[in-house]
Amino acid sequence: QVQLVESGGGLVQPGGSLRLSCAASVHILKSCAVGWFRQAPGKEREFVAVISWAGGSTSYADSVKGRFTISRNNAVNTVYLQMNTLKPEDTAVYYCAVALRGISTYRREFDYWGQGTQVTVSS
Question: How far apart are CA 57 and CA 77, in angstroms?
């Protein structure tokens, strides 16, 4: 029913920036929230940021506060993750996800997931 496609990942040096995009195949309901999670090798998938679709309320993991910004363009069903001052520990596969029940930071509360995009921060 719903497809989420991430893009914008790649290789960047420490201190650099990347902008990830997540495009949804269908219109996102106003009650939904869209989030970003990441998973590094050998580690659990962890919450990064989330935004409510209607109101634009946001929440961030402590590890990315002040460096990452989540935003959305409701008209084109797309969310973004602007990542600045990147660190090697930000290296991971980044996943976009939709929660039908609204804003959440918990992986189990998200209903639809993209395939992920690789972000590598290295000198």
Answer: 16
The pLDDT value given to residue 8 = 97
Residue type, 40: A
- In whole angstroms, give the CA distance from residue 32 to residue 57: 11
In angstroms, what is the C-alpha Rg of the chain?
13
Containing 94, the helix (H) or strand (E) segment is strand 92-99
Please count the residues of the chain. Answer: 123
Q: Is residue 76 helix, strand or coil?
A: helix
Residue type for position 86: L
Q: What count of other Cβ atoms lies within 10 Å of the Cβ of residue 97?
A: 23
Residue with tokens 């989030």: 35
Strands 10-12 and 92-99 come out as unpaired
Could you tell me the pLDDT band of residue 71, with boundaries at 50, 70 and 90? very high
Q: In the structure, what pLDDT confidence band is assigned to residue 116 with cuts at 50, 70 and 90?
A: very high
